[in-house]
Amino acid sequence: MKARMADLETKTSGWTSEYSSVQRILNYLARKTKSEASKRLMLDIIYNIMRFSGKNPDELVEMEKDEVEDLVHNYLDGLEKRGVSRSRVRTERTFIILFFRENGYKHAKELEITHYSLSARVRFKPQYVPTMEEAIKMADAAPNLKAGAAILCLATSGLRNATLRALTYGDVKAELEEGKETVFVPVYPEMKKRVPNACKNNIPYYTFFAPVAVRRLKSYLEQRRERQDGIIEDNEILFCTDDKKVKDRRYSPLTKNYLTRILKQSARNAGITQWNDIDAHSLRKTFEEVLDKPLIDGMRLDIKVREFLMGHILTGSQDPYFGSGVKVQGSAISFNKIKVEEMRKDYSKLTFEPKPVFKKEEAVLEAIRKFAEAFGIDPMRIKIEKQKELGKELNADEEIELIQNEIKKMREGERDPQRIVKEEELEKYLSDGWHFVSVLPSQRILIRR
């Protein structure tokens, strides 16, 4: 069987195969979308059928219709018995029928293969969409800097799993080194050479990483640079694999499943109950929710801008987005520089980080602590003493009252044995047995008996 697979690999290169049956299906896929992901999946399924039947592709398409139907049913039933998901079985059924159809099994010879239906209970995978605050908590709880940066890059850009994994350092290098707070991120068809699904439907577009993500990304890259003797080359994968079994790890993307695992792990560490229902698409939805919310100026993004940043096909012409000024490394694509800056300006009005909550009590408390220190009072010490006395934590109002009382005692001279006096009064107090302690910021003098 290994020999047969090796034979398939040696006889198939790119979109060309020495097997006439394989060439027919490759031609069909090339005419449709020329999707690298679809090609790879088709070749994997052909190999699986070869292994199951013991026949090469050209021998398979010479079989009688009823023989093929029996073979396919037995193969698909075997997948189910091995615990393969019903969704995967349905996908393989579709690709198998397509392979045989393009090799003459149509009309009277059309294959009659049973549909493997999905029940309503299992048709849709549950998905939890984190809030932006939860995404930040996930990044904080991530197992390493790379994972934390990946989480926030996904949540602030809307990039798909495959697209994030296909990014190179060169894609973002220029703006990172320029110190841009909001970083331009291109998506272009050539990325599919690194990860087949990276540019869905070959639609080029761009999005951005927000400052909260850029800060994490810089920290991760600084750590990586230290480990790589200070050098990260432009063609290195931005989020490269950590698998020690992989040769040239710096140029190899993370796997889809690995990225999904670290997202779930981070969500679980962050205390999100539905952590197991989170994946890269969840964070894409997080970004979409941010796009739908009002901007910091109270306005909303134009619907076309939102759709463009999500990488969706726009109705009408997309020509205004393309042009000269912003060249994409390794691609024939370039974008209109004026439009990019307009989009960056609009994007910068999105709210990714929670606004700090101003609490009046905390502001007053901080001010009165500083005022007390000017009187030589240690606010933390008297708070701890009072909490021990009462056997409970003091709230802000109670702490304010405590400090005010201490200041009052100080001013009235009731509180042992120190006093604040003016410079011209110092000599009199010294002659009465008081001792100099310090000059306060107010230029008054603290003395003690």
Q: What would your notes on this structure say?
A:
With 449 residues, this protein is mainly α. It folds into four domains: 2-109, no CATH class; 132-347, Intergrase catalytic core (hpI Integrase, Chain A, Orthogonal Bundle), CATH 1.10.443; 357-415; 417-449, no CATH class. Helix content is 51%, strand content 7%. The chain is built from 19 helices and nine strands. It has helices at residues 2-10, 20-32, 36-53, 57-60, 65-81, 86-101, 132-140, 145-157, 161-166, 169-178, 211-227, 256-269, 280-292, 303-309, 337-347, 360-374, 379-390, 396-412, 426-431; strands at 12-13, 16-17, 183-187, 205-209, 325-327, 334-336, 418-421, 435-439, 445-448. Strands 7-9-8 form a three-stranded antiparallel beta sheet. Strands 1-2 form a two-stranded antiparallel sheet. Helix 5 (65-81) runs antiparallel to helix 6 and helix 7 crosses helix 12. The protein is elongated, with a radius of gyration of 33 Å. The termini are far apart.
